[in-house]
Design a protein that fits this description.
The complex is a heterodimer of chains A (103) and B (458). Chain A is of the alpha+beta class. Chain A is built from four helices and four strands, in the order H-E-E-H-H-E-E-H. A ten-stranded mixed beta sheet of chain B has the order 12-13-9-8-1-2-3-7-4-19, sandwiched between helices. The relative contact order of chain B is 0.15. Classes of the chains: A alpha+beta (103), B alpha+beta (458).
Chain lengths: 103, 458
């Protein structure tokens, strides 16, 4: 199943001017645990979807929020000439298509 | 047991207003202060660079302050405003203070106004660089004197101690320049000597007001801090919180949900627990604050990088869409030649093209860069002056319109322009050039605090 169909929230935002952070959030513990246990969501997956070196991706499993988080460098410093996304608010979409091997 | 009640107005105060009934409901709970954050770097470097405030007109912002000041002074509750007028530079603080004085005079309000200035002088910054008291933050290069001298403005992001000082000197209302969001909501707890881990975590939790509640949106939240826990409750009866909405807020706009760097140290939330008290209130325990050896404040600076102009265009011709990169290369080449004729060095200008419908939002990170039946172009030019920007965009749009590409049949014009003129000036362009940490001996060293008697005659 696509991650976008399983998660309740998939969003991105700036974390300071040098990083974008992507949050994948669930309301239901069973789904969160199933995604976590599948192992498909990881720093390596994020790096692959965004064409980044895996060392550039900080990945967090945040149990109290039933959430996953990935933080990685922006292509431009926020708001500089050439930056296509001032707030970093539309950088999450590539994760929606990640296939999670659960029904 | 000590109990401190903190009312957060909402996540970001400018001219957008807030639900007055939620403020009144919060004031009915007899809070020890009302806090609101009025700034952010989120909107980009323009506001720090230009000295303007974000989005709203003076009239709209004044209306919000009028309601807020009259309500808080009526209830005799201190009002703490942080990061005045978006960027919290001196010009923003003065703009806000002038507006507050006008309201006081018009409404017959009399009170002590604390004003906190956070802008840094070049001399102080040079001295800090030379004595090794600055260090890069995140991906920034080391700070040097040339960067500081080129900046329009540099502010230091103050900690909670600036509010404590203003309150100790009798302020009823504090308008602060750039400060951490946490500082606003942590100050009273610092003043009372309460549990620093819980106080910092509470501040972090309510800094965006109603964003911890559902339905989400700008609204008021009451935080209550005791010796061993804090609770949060939206004051709007239509809003709810649960352990998940409260815990999840630590993800918002932060790099790491378990570790938050503040001026005096690091907040650790990894061992925090969240429990529902009822269907609108959440109780949090277990947060820990680890004091750092040094007190550090963040420096933020912006520099002008030239003037900006923009153009938009749509392309529907299927061969032009298929050969788009050839077409864009032709237009860029024409701009380079024009720039050369104008005597512009290649590093003195930039042309950026976003192709919407292909990879306009994500650029090189787009995993599926497939063009559809039409694409939209957004062209951004930055050059030393507005006239040169016009020249470059004129050249780009003209070359885009007329250039040949393989298989071309659309010889009357390659693009649709939705505006007349086809390109438009924007104004000065800025970028964040300072994003560093400054080590200080005393939290009040990088700021100037004034307290004045305001208003009285109606």
């Amino acid at each position: 199943m696509r991650l976008g169909a399983l998660a309740d929230v998939v969003r991105s935002k700036n974390a300071g001017i040098h990083y974008v952070t992507v949050d994948v959030m669930f309301r239901d513990r069973r789904t969160f645990e199933a995604v976590r246990d599948s192992g498909v969501l990881s720093a390596a997956t994020v790096a692959d979807r965004y064409g980044l070196p895996v060392d550039d991706v900080r990945f967090f499993v945040y149990e109290p929020g039933l959430a996953f988080k990935a933080t990685f460098p922006r292509a431009h410093i926020a708001g500089s000439p050439g930056d296509p996304d001032l707030y970093g608010a539309q950088q999450h979409a590539p994760l929606l298509d990640v296939e999670v091997p659960i029904e | 047991m000590t109990e401190l009640r903190c009312l957060s107005l909402n996540g970001l105060m400018h001219g957008n207003g807030f639900p007055t009934a939620s403020l009144d409901a919060g004031l009915d709970r007899d809070p020890h202060f009302v806090g609101v954050d009025a700034g952010s770097t989120d909107g980009g470097p323009y506001f720090l660079g230009s000295g303007e405030n974000m989005h709203s007109s003076r009239r709209a912002v004044k209306q919000v302050y009028r309601t807020l000041l009259t309500r808080c002074l009526d209830a005799d509750v201190p009002l703490l405003v942080g990061s005045a007028a978006t960027a919290g530079a001196d010009v923003h603080v003065d703009w806000t203070a002038a507006l507050v004085r006008e309201i006081a005079a018009a409404e017959g309000l009399a009170f002590d106004l604390g004003i906190v200035y956070c802008e840094q002088s070049i001399g102080d910054l040079v001295a800090a660089i030379e004595s090794g008291r600055t260090e890069p933050l995140d991906e920034s290069p080391p700070l040097d004197v040339a960067t500081v001298e080129a900046a329009e403005r540099v502010v230091a992001m103050a900690g909670p101690e600036v509010f404590v000082e203003a309150l100790d000197r009798g302020a009823d209302v504090v308008v602060a320049g750039r400060c951490s969001d946490v500082a606003i909501y942590k100050a009273m707890a610092v003043r009372e000597g309460l549990h620093e881990g819980l106080a910092t975590h509470l501040a972090k939790t309510i800094e965006c007001g109603g964003l911890i509640a559902t339905p989400r949106g700008g609204d008021c939240v009451l935080g209550t801090l005791t010796d061993d826990a804090f609770t949060v409750t939206p004051t709007n009866p239509a809003k709810r919180t649960d352990p998940l909405t409260v815990a999840s807020h630590l993800l918002y706009e932060t790099a790491d949900p378990t570790r938050f760097v503040e001026p005096r140290g690091v907040l650790h939330t990894g061992d925090a627990t969240y429990d529902a008290v009822d269907d609108r209130t959440v109780r949090v325990t277990g947060s820990r604050f680890q004091r750092a050896d040094d007190y550090t404040v963040k420096l933020e600076g912006a520099r002008e990088v030239g003037h900006r102009g923009v153009a938009t265009a749509g392309i529907r011709d299927p061969t032009a869409v298929a050969e788009l990169d050839a077409l864009l290369t032709a237009a860029r080449t024409a701009v380079d030649e024009k720039a050369s004729r104008l005597g512009l060095a290649t590093h003195a200008f930039s042309i950026d093209v976003r192709v919407y419908g292909r990879d306009g939002v994500m650029g090189g990170r787009e995993p599926t860069p497939d063009a559809g039946h039409e694409v939209g172009l957004f062209v951004e030019a930055v050059a030393p002056d507005a006239g040169t920007v016009d020249d470059l965009l004129e050249e780009f749009t003209y070359a885009l319109f007329v250039s040949d590409f393989p298989g071309r049949r659309t010889t009357a014009g390659n693009a649709a322009f939705p505006t007349s003129p086809a390109h438009a000036p924007v104004g000065p362009a800025y970028e964040f050039s300072v994003w560093h940490r400054l080590r200080v001996a005393d939290p009040l060293d990088p700021v100037r605090i004034e307290v004045e008697r305001v208003g009285g005659s109606a």
